[in-house]
Amino acid sequence: MTNSASSSYSGLTMSSCLTVPSSLTSSYSPSCFSAAPSSSSQISSPLSPCFFQKYKPINETVPALFVFGDSVVDTGNNNYINTIFKSNFLPYGKDFGAGNQPTGRFSNGLVLSDIIASKFGVKKLLPASLDPNLKLEDLLTDVSFASAASGYDPLTSKLASVIPLSDQLSTFKKYKNKIKEAVGEERMKMIISKSVYIICTGSNDIAYSYASTPLRQAHYDIPSYTHLLASIASNLLKELYDLGARRIGVVGMPNIGCVPAQRTIEGGIERGCADFENQAARIFNSKLVYQMDGLRNKFQDAKFVYLDIYNSLKDVVQNPAKYGFEISNRGCCGTGVIEGSMLCNRYTSNICFNPSNHVFWDSYHPTQNAYNVLCSMVLDHKIKDFF
């Protein structure tokens, strides 16, 4: 993380919000964010604000959602740090809100963390922790601490000049103190213990720090490197537990070798899926599951939920028509085979006519429609496991 990033990150305050809404200091009661649905199809919609009411156990609430990780769940934090890994420019945000609203999300619209927040009935949009317009009520309901291009491996974030997981967690600790100052210690403990925590990262460790540089290959083979990553993940989960978290979900690595850029770089003339990255992801996921099983047995008052995105994305990529897509081997932006971040811009890249029929928006990240489909596949049947 760069010095300027560290300075702006640590200096964020909530001084602009002078009063705490009474609804946040009294007993929490979940509600839908809009008028009552007119049909059962609206309730079943993955983005319906009432979706959580369908899947949650009776008498359970989720006061807040806190998210850590990389670009899949970053809702704009990289806008405020000195890094080249940004997406706060068109055509990113093409379908966000009223249209053509780049927010720093690596998609044409919403990203995974927004959809997860909606599914848990917290909010429709997840604010970025570095947003200078962040209000206290945002802090008390949901925040994304994620930073695009980061990973479990501290080297990954250092190479990209982005916010490492350790700093994401440090900022959460500061926010925890802000919550205590706002609503008192007992209320703070309730919010922390009943909130849901999502960690989603790791792809950049394999695709970049390991596969694209000699810095880790010189010291680790894939089994030992994935062991390192899984150990870091386990330590992060333990630290969250020590901070009071009791409902923690971890998204496994996807089949990284099947994203368009990796097909182009590693997939040969026919741009097939890159087996090396996919194998590494599978090995990491098996080690992560093992670590989480151990934590589940050790801390039986907590829920550690593994969220398998590997097999979901694999099926979507292999069978796009099954999920309403037409194209899964290239992105919507530009040629769709290599563009991402700065290379996907309004000056050099044409945009496909219909992003919703593409699995990928750029050569790395899914479209809003694909995030929607994947989140339903990965999370819907797991919501009950958080309680």
Account of the protein in words:
By secondary structure, this protein is an alpha/beta fold. It is built from 16 helices and seven strands. The protein has helices spanning 3-10, 22-25, 40-44, 51-55, 112-119, 136-139, 154-160, 165-183, 185-194, 203-210, 214-217, 222-242, 260-266, 275-298, 310-318, 368-379; strands spanning 65-69, 142-144, 196-200, 247-251, 303-307, 327-331, 358-360. A five-stranded parallel β-sheet has the order 2-1-3-4-5. The protein has a two-stranded parallel ribbon with strand order 6-7. Helix 8 (165-183) packs across helix 9 (185-194).
Essential attributes:
387 residues; alpha/beta; five-stranded parallel sheet; two-stranded parallel ribbon; globular; disordered N terminus
Low-confidence stretches: 1-49
Distance between the termini: 35 Å
Q: Which class best fits the helix and strand makeup?
A: alpha/beta
Report helical residue fraction: 40-55%
* Beta-strand percent range: 5-15%
Query: What is the average of the pLDDT values?
Result: 87
The number of helices is 16
> How many strands appear in the DSSP assignment?
7
In short:
It is built from 16 helices and 7 strands. The chain has helices spanning 3-10, 22-25, 40-44, 51-55, 112-119, 136-139, 154-160, 165-183, 185-194, 203-210, 214-217, 222-242, 260-266, 275-298, 310-318, 368-379; strands spanning 65-69, 142-144, 196-200, 247-251, 303-307, 327-331, 358-360.
